[in-house]
Write a structure and sequence with these properties.
Blueprint: E1 2-6, H1 10-24, E2 27-31, H2 34-44, E3 48-52, H3 60-69, E4 78-82, H4 87-94, E5 100-103, H5 111-121
Helix pairs in contact: 2-3
Keywords: Phosphoprotein
InterPro entries: Bact_response_regulator (IPR050595), CheY-like_superfamily (IPR011006), Sig_transdc_resp-reg_receiver (IPR001789)
Protein name: Two-component system response regulator
Length: 122
C-alpha cells in the first residue's frame, strides 16, 4: 500500500516514513507542505494520506478541505496527525470527514497498526 505523509517538519516526516516502511511494509511518499501534498496526492493517488494539522501557509485543515473538494483526491482516506488534544479541538476533528485522528507524539511501533485499523473502519 502507498501512503503520503504531509508534514512540514523534516524530522517528523522522516521518522514517520521509517516507521511505516519498517513496521508496515508501506511504500511512503512525502510532502513538506500542503501545496506539495495536494500536487502529489493528485499525481500519485496514494491509498491513504497522513496529514499534519499544524503547518505554515496552508495548514492541515485547509489542505484537507482542498483534498476533499477535488474529484482527483476526494476518495483518498485522510488521517490527521495532531498535537492538539483539547476536548474542543477533538470534537471539531471528529466532525470532519477523516478516517482517524492520531495524536502526537505517537508510538512509532504501533503507528502502522493504527493506520491500518483506521482504514478498515474509516
Amino acid at each position: 500500500m502507498r501512503i503520503l505523509i504531509i508534514d512540514d517538519e523534516d524530522d517528523i516526516r522522516e521518522a514517520t516514513q521509517i516507521c511505516l516502511e519498517v513496521t508496515g511494509d508501506w511504500e511512503v511518499l512525502t510532502a513538506s507542505s500542503g501545496r506539495e501534498g495536494l500536487a502529489k496526492a493528485a499525481a500519485e493517488q496514494p491509498d491513504a494520506i497522513l496529514l499534519d494539522v499544524m503547518m505554515p501557509d496552508m495548514d492541515g485543515l485547509a489542505t484537507l478541505e482542498k483534498l476533499q473538494a477535488s474529484p482527483a483526491t476526494n476518495r483518498i482516506p485522510v488521517i490527521l496527525l495532531t498535537a492538539k488534544a483539547q476536548p474542543a479541538e477533538q470534537r471539531r476533528f471528529s466532525q470532519l470527514d477523516v478516517a482517524a485522528v492520531i495524536l502526537k507524539p505517537y508510538d512509532p511501533f504501533t503507528l502502522s497498526d493504527q493506520v491500518i485499523d483506521a482504514l478498515k473502519t474509516g
